[in-house]
C-alpha cells in the first residue's frame, strides 16, 4: 500500500461526503447527515488490516467505514437519498445503514449502543472458530456510555475478538471531551478492563494500520479485545446544519493544515502530485456516476411499508 | 409419551432440546452455567453442553442483550436469560432500539433470531423491583414476538417455538407458576408462533387471560359454575402475534367479555383487547367489556399489602357478575 492508494481511499470518502452535502443543499437528501471530513485516515488505515470475514460497525458518522469496507458507493448514495437501495431499502438512511454483503454490521444512531452488538459478532466469530474479528468504531463522547463499558468488560472476560476504535475528534456534538472526562487519554480506561489500549495519530493511516495490526493479531489469536484511540479533528460541523459557534476562531483552519489528505499533498513530489491529481479526477467521475445511479434508483413503494418486520 | 413435569422442569427440557438440536444455539445470562440458574431452569445443561454453548455473563444486561443481537445477526441462535423481568428495563435500549429494529431497518437483510427468556410477576415479600408484569412494554414494540406460557406444557412448547423462530421473541414466564405440575408432551411437533387457546368452554361470558391469571380465571369459572354461570376461558398465550380471532369467536358465543391480567391497569395489554373488542365485536357484545388488573401502584412487599393489589379469583368472579348484571 502506498501513499497513492491511501490517498485514493480517503479521497473517495471525502468527495462522497462533499457531494452528499451539495445534494443535501439541493434538497435531495432528507434529514441531517453527519460527515467524517478529516477523520478518513481511521477507517482507511483499519481497513488495510481487515479481511472479508471480519465484521465492522460504526456510529451515525459511518459513511467512511462503509466505503472503506467496500460498500457500493451508488447504493450508499441511494440509501441516504431515501431510495430503495440494496443496503436497507430506504429504511435506514444516513445514520443507521448497514450492508450485510460486506459484513458491515451497521451504523448506530444511539450513542454507544453498537458496541454490545459488535461484541455479539465477536461471539459468533469465537463460536465458529473462524479467527474473524469484530471492529467497532465510536466517538470520544461515547466512551462515557454504559453500553460501551458493559460490552468491553464482557468482551474482556470472554476473550472475544473485539477491537474498539475510539475516534477522538475532541467534540461530542458541541461539547469538548476534556470537559467530560478526567482522564487524559480515553485509552487509559483499557486498564480498567485488563486489556491493551493504545493512542495513535488518527490522521496517519500508517499509524492507524500499525496499531490495528497489533490489536487484530491479538484478537485473532483468541487473546481478547483491545482499545485503539485515534486522535483526529473534525473539519466540519457535528451535523449538516451545525454553524459551529462553539469552536474557537482559527481552529478549523489550523486543522485543515494537518488533515490526512493535505498531509499527503504536502509531502508529495512532482510525480506523486501528478498521480494525486489524476486520482482526484477519477474519484470525481466515480462519485458523479454513483450519484447518477442513485438518482436512477426507485423510491421505496409505500405499499411495502409493513414489509420486513417479521420472518 | 406425555410426562408429568413442573413448569420449571418443562423449561429445562425445552432448553436442553434447543441446545441439543442445533450447535449454533448458545445460552447465556447470570448464574446460568455451573450454578444451573437462580431457579434451576438450566440445571445440568452446562455439564452436558459445556462452556462454548452455555456460559455466565457479568451483571450487564445491556451488554449481553446487545451481544445476543450481534451474534444472532451474524449466525448464532442465542438465548439470553434476564433473571427477573424487571431487569430488562436496564437494557430496554437494546431491546427496543436495537433488537426490535434490526430486521425492518435493514429491509430484511439482517435478522435477529434470538430469545430473551425471563420470569415475571409478584411473589410474597418480593419488592417493587422484582415483581412487575411487564409484557405490555414489549407488546407495544413492533418487531418483537411476545410469549407468556401459563402451564408446564406451554412452557415447553412455546419456548421451543421461540427458539426456532427467525424473529426475536420475549418469553416471559410466571415465577409463581414454576412449582405447578402438569402433563408435558415432550415429543410433540414444534408449534407455529402464535395462537390463543380456549382452555375452558362456556356460554355466558368470556374471560381472556394470560400467564398467572389463566389458572386464576379457571378457578373463578369453576366457582361460578356452581351457581350455573358457564364462563369460557381463553388463554391468549401470545400477545404478538395476537390471535384476536379466537377471542372474537368466543365473544360471538358468549356476548360478554372480561380481560384479566396481573399487570397494572392503565396502558396494560387488557386495554388493547378491550379496544379491539369494541372495534370488532361491537355487534356481539351485550355488556361493556370489563378489565381485571392490578391497581396503578408499584408492587408492595408485605403479603397483606400484596393481597390488596394482586388480582385473584374473587376479582374475576366479581367482574363476570358485573357483565351479567
Ligand atoms: C444515547 C444517545 N444520547 C444522545 C444522543 C445525541 N447525540 C448524537 S451524536 C452525539 C455526540 C456523540 O459524540 P461522540 O461519541 O464523540 O461522536 P462524534 O459525534 O464526535 O463522532 C450525541 C450526544 C444519541 N444519539 N444517543
UniProtKB/TrEMBL annotation, chain A:
GO terms for biological process: pyruvate decarboxylation to acetyl-CoA. The keyword RNA-binding does not apply. Transmembrane segments: none annotated. SUPFAM superfamilies: Thiamin diphosphate-binding fold (THDP-binding) (SSF52518). Residues 9-302 form the Dehydrogenase E1 component domain. The keyword Protein biosynthesis does not apply. One of its GO terms (molecular function) is pyruvate dehydrogenase (acetyl-transferring) activity. It comes from the Bacteria. Its cofactor is thiamine diphosphate. Keywords: Oxidoreductase, Thiamine pyrophosphate. This is Acetoin:2,6-dichlorophenolindophenol oxidoreductase subunit alpha. It comes from Polymorphospora rubra. The lineage of its organism: Bacteria, Bacillati, Actinomycetota, Actinomycetes, Micromonosporales. The gene is acoA1_2.
From TrEMBL, chain B:
This is Pyruvate dehydrogenase subunit beta. Residues 5-180 form the Transketolase-like pyrimidine-binding domain. It comes from the Bacteria. PANTHER family: PYRUVATE DEHYDROGENASE E1 COMPONENT BETA SUBUNIT, PYRUVATE DEHYDROGENASE E1 COMPONENT SUBUNIT BETA. Keywords: Oxidoreductase, Pyruvate, Thiamine pyrophosphate. Its cofactor is thiamine diphosphate. Gene3D superfamilies: 3.40.50.920, 3.40.50.970. InterPro entries: THDP-binding (IPR029061), Transketo_C/PFOR_II (IPR009014), Transketolase-like_Pyr-bd (IPR005475), Transketolase_C (IPR033248). One of its GO terms (molecular function) is magnesium ion binding. It comes from Polymorphospora rubra.
Amino acid at each position: 500500500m502506498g501513499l497513492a492508494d491511501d490517498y485514493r481511499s480517503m479521497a473517495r470518502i471525502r468527495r462522497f461526503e462533499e457531494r452528499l452535502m451539495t445534494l443535501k443543499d439541493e434538497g435531495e437528501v432528507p434529514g441531517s447527515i453527519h460527515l467524517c471530513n478529516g477523520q478518513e485516515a481511521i477507517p482507511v488505515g483499519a481497513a488495510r488490516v481487515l479481511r472479508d470475514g471480519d465484521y465492522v460497525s460504526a456510529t451515525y458518522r459511518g459513511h467512511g467505514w462503509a466505503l472503506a469496507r467496500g460498500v457500493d458507493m451508488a447504493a450508499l448514495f441511494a440509501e441516504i437519498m431515501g431510495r430503495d437501495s440494496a443496503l436497507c431499502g430506504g429504511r435506514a438512511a444516513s445514520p443507521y445503514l448497514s450492508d450485510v454483503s460486506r459484513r458491515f454490521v451497521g451504523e448506530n444512531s444511539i450513542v454507544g449502543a453498537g458496541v454490545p452488538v459488535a461484541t455479539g459478532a465477536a461471539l459468533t466469530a469465537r463460536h465458529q472458530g473462524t479467527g474473524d474479528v469484530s471492529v467497532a468504531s465510536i466517538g470520544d463522547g461515547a466512551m462515557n456510555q454504559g453500553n460501551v463499558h458493559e460490552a468491553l468488560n464482557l468482551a474482556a472476560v470472554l476473550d472475544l475478538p473485539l477491537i474498539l476504535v475510539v475516534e477522538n475528534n475532541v467534540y461530542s456534538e458541541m461539547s469538548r471531551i476534556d470537559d467530560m472526562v478526567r482522564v487524559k487519554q480515553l485509552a487509559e480506561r483499557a486498564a480498567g478492563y485488563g486489556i491493551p489500549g493504545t493512542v495513535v495519530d488518527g490522521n496517519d493511516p500508517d499509524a492507524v494500520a500499525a496499531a490495528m495490526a497489533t490489536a487484530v493479531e491479538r484478537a485473532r489469536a483468541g487473546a481478547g479485545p483491545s482499545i485503539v484511540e485515534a486522535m483526529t479533528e473534525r473539519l466540519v460541523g457535528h451535523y449538516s446544519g451545525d454553524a459551529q459557534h462553539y469552536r474557537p476562531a482559527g481552529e478549523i483552519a489550523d486543522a485543515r493544515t494537518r488533515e490526512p489528505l493535505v498531509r499527503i499533498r504536502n509531502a508529495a513530489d512532482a510525480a506523486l502530485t501528478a498521480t494525486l491529481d489524476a486520482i482526484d479526477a477519477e474519484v470525481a467521475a466515480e462519485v458523479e456516476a454513483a450519484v447518477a445511479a442513485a438518482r436512477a434508483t426507485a423510491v421505496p413503494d409505500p405499499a411495502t411499508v409493513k414489509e420486513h418486520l417479521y420472518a | 409419551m406425555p410426562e408429568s413435569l413442573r413448569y420449571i422442569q418443562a423449561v429445562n427440557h425445552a432448553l436442553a432440546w434447543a441446545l441439543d438440536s442445533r450447535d449454533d444455539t448458545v445460552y447465556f445470562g447470570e448464574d446460568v452455567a455451573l450454578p444451573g440458574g437462580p431457579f434451576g431452569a438450566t440445571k445440568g445443561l452446562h455439564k452436558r453442553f459445556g462452556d462454548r454453548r452455555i456460559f455466565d455473563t457479568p451483571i450487564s444486561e445491556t451488554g449481553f442483550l446487545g451481544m445476543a443481537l450481534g451474534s444472532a445477526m451474524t449466525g448464532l441462535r442465542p438465548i439470553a436469560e434476564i433473571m427477573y423481568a424487571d431487569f430488562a428495563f436496564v437494557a430496554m435500549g437494546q431491546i427496543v432500539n436495537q433488537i426490535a429494529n434490526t430486521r425492518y431497518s435493514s429491509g430484511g437483510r439482517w435478522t435477529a433470531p434470538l430469545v430473551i427468556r425471563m420470569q415475571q410477576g409478584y411473589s410474597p415479600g418480593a419488592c417493587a423491583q422484582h415483581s412487575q408484569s411487564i409484557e405490555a412494554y414489549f407488546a407495544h414494540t413492533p418487531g418483537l414476538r411476545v410469549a407468556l406460557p401459563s402451564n408446564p406444557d406451554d412452557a415447553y412448547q412455546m419456548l421451543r417455538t421461540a427458539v426456532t423462530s427467525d424473529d426475536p421473541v420475549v418469553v416471559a414466564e410466571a415465577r409463581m407458576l414454576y412449582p405447578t405440575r402438569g402433563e408435558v408432551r415432550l415429543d410433540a411437533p414444534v408449534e407455529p408462533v402464535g395462537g390463543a387457546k380456549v382452555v375452558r368452554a362456556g356460554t355466558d361470558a368470556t374471560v381472556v387471560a394470560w400467564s398467572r391469571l389463566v389458572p386464576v380465571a379457571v378457578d373463578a369459572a369453576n366457582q361460578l359454575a356452581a351457581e350455573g354461570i358457564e364462563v369460557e376461558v381463553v388463554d391468549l398465550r401470545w400477545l404478538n402475534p395476537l390471535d384476536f380471532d379466537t377471542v372474537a369467536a368466543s365473544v360471538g358465543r358468549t356476548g360478554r367479555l372480561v380481560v384479566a391480567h396481573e399487570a397494572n391497569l392503565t396502558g396494560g395489554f387488557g386495554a388493547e383487547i378491550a379496544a379491539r373488542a369494541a372495534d370488532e365485536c361491537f355487534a356481539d357484545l351485550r355488556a361493556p367489556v370489563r378489565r381485571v388488573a392490578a391497581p396503578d401502584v408499584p408492587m408492595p412487599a408485605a403479603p397483606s399489602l400484596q393481597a390488596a393489589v394482586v388480582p385473584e379469583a374473587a376479582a374475576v368472579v366479581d367482574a363476570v357478575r358485573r357483565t351479567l348484571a
